[in-house]
Design a protein that fits this description.
The complex is a heterodimer of chains A (391) and B (73). Chain A is mostly beta strands and 391 residues long. Chain A contains 3 helices and 20 strands. Chain A has one domain (7-33, 134-390): Porin. With 73 residues, chain B is an all-alpha fold. The chains are: A mainly beta (391), B mainly alpha (73). Chains A and B meet through helix 1, helix 2, helix 3, strand 1 and strand 2 of A and helix 1 and helix 2 of B.
């Protein structure tokens, strides 16, 4: 849970990442001044664990998501978005790793008894101040049985020249962790985590068909950043997950877009370099091709490559039983990597637009770097379907 | 040289390079106004995917993630 900044916090920076310059403002003109409702259903399904776990269920996580959004104009220059999310989660989760006779890690899973739901409401407002300048603010609240997150965000964009826009954003999240079965499994009763994030970007119009956005995000989290549901094997002891109570993350982002008029398509290339004070480093490369077809069909094939190095205190276990102040066998802090492929189809019919998509992600230890890998790595398939309706 | 320093140099070069480009006039921006030229053409799809990645990967930081939550599993 707390080993990363709040996703809610990151959501609040979404508006900042999409900081609209002159080109983007023009691109969004088709929905400005009206009202639209959107719905998406998502189905996330993790592969069964291979090799089979030493104990527990191999039936891993499944999440079903319902996402509604209402977007409407308020007067000539204001826009309001209201979002509602409901998620139903079930399945088993990696608990800790245990060494076999050869010293290789065997995974111990929880039972497939996890049942939880998450509800989220979010409100975002923005105002077009003219001449390419825009301000925005947002607030959101997310609740699970064991986790509550509240967040506020602000963003601002303005042109620096005819070809360059500056974007700035800030966000704050306050999270409360209230683990289930705390007494039975020697977990904390209640803890707090606070996260603050700053984001800045420059958007360049390079020519009539090309634009580039370069950004940097700095996030600092403090408080309880361990995962109360993870355990750590150390000799004859099973310890609680223990991580530093401070974490500073930095991410550099590059997003390049080029239109190909003859092909009636556009190429998207994204790169992210991320690092943090725990020693985790990662590289992410994404490529997507947006192709328009007759009868208002659009298809979007995409590829994504992710490579991560391990946190400095990560180890699958300590066979000798020696542990430092911080220790974790969370597979998400191990050296790992993945390759994923996605394909989306959408079609506009009058005021309606339907969309379906699939993404398949396959984990590969060999893609990771710097540190040990973990048997709990996850591969998954994610489906989504929904519609937009413009009044 | 460390990768992050390389990227900083790249960003600086991009900023300088952009200053040298010929400004594209408003009436020349029709291609940039296309739906498929947005930095995030489908925010709801991005929200779903980024929320998943936030829960399953050790790094985050690409704005566009969606939804708060534990992400414990």
């Amino acid at each position: 849970m707390s080993e990363r900044p709040s996703a809610l916090l990151l959501q609040l920076l979404a508006a900042t990442a999409a900081l609209v310059g002159p080109a983007q403002a023009a691109a969004q003109s088709d929905s400005a001044g009206g009202t639209a409702i959107s719905y998406r259903h998502g189905d996330y399904d993790e592969d069964r664990l291979k090799p089979a776990p030493l104990d527990g269920s191999d039936r891993r996580y499944r999440v079903r998501t319902e996402h509604f959004q209402l977007s409407t104009a308020l007067g000539d220059s204001d826009q309001l978005n209201v979002g509602l999310v409901h998620e139903a989660m079930s399945g088993s989760s990696p608990w800790f790793s245990f060494p076999d006779n050869d010293g290789d890690a065997l995974q111990v899973m929880s039972g497939a008894t996890i049942r939880d739901t998450r509800r989220e409401v979010s409100v975002a407002w923005s105002r077009d101040r003219g001449e390419g300048s825009r301000i925005g603010a947002s607030a959101s609240y997310s609740a699970e049985d064991d986790y509550h997150a509240s967040a506020l965000g602000f963003d601002w964009t303005r042109p620096l020249s005819a070809a360059v826009d500056l974007g700035l954003g800030a966000s704050f999240s306050h999270d409360i962790i209230d683990p289930t079965d705390a007494a039975e499994f020697d977990r904390i009763d209640r803890a707090i985590k606070n996260s603050t994030s700053l984001f800045s970007s420059l958007t360049f119009v390079l020519d009539r068909s090309t634009q580039l956005q370069a950004g940097v995000q700095l996030t600092h989290a403090s408080g309880y950043l361990s995962d109360p549901y993870k355990r750590y094997y150390a000799g004859d002891r099973i310890l609680s997950d223990a991580r530093p109570d401070q974490r500073t993350q930095t991410a550099f982002l590059l997003r390049w877009r080029r239109a190909f008029i003859e092909q009636d398509g556009a190429l998207h290339l994204d790169y992210r370099l991320a690092g943090d004070s725990w020693g985790v480093r990662s590289h992410t490369v994404e490529a997507s091709w947006y192709q328009s077809l007759p009868h208002d069909f659009r298809i979007v094939p995409g590829l994504r490559w992710y490579s991560q190095g391990a946190a400095s205190f990560y180890a699958p276990f300590s066979a000798a039983g020696t542990v430092g102040r911080f220790h974790s066998s969370d597979y998400r802090l191990a050296a790992n990597g993945s390759v994923s492929a996605s394909f989306d189809v959408r079609q506009r019919i009058g005021a309606w637009e339907w969309v379906v998509g699939i993404e398949r992600l396959r984990a590969h230890d060999a893609i990771g770097f710097g540190g040990e890998s973990d048997p709990g790595r996850v591969s998954y398939t994610q489906l989504q379907a929904g519609f937009d309706y413009h009044f | 040289m460390r990768p992050d320093r390389c990227l900083l140099l790249l960003l600086a070069a991009l900023a300088l390079g952009a200053c040298a480009t010929t400004p594209v006039q408003p009436w020349e921006r029709g291609r940039l106004a296309r739906w498929d030229m947005r930095f995030d053409p489908d925010p709801l799809k991005s929200a779903l995917k980024e929320h998943t990645r936030f829960s399953k990967e050790g790094s985050s930081g690409r704005a566009g993630a969606a939804g708060g939550g534990c992400g414990c599993n």
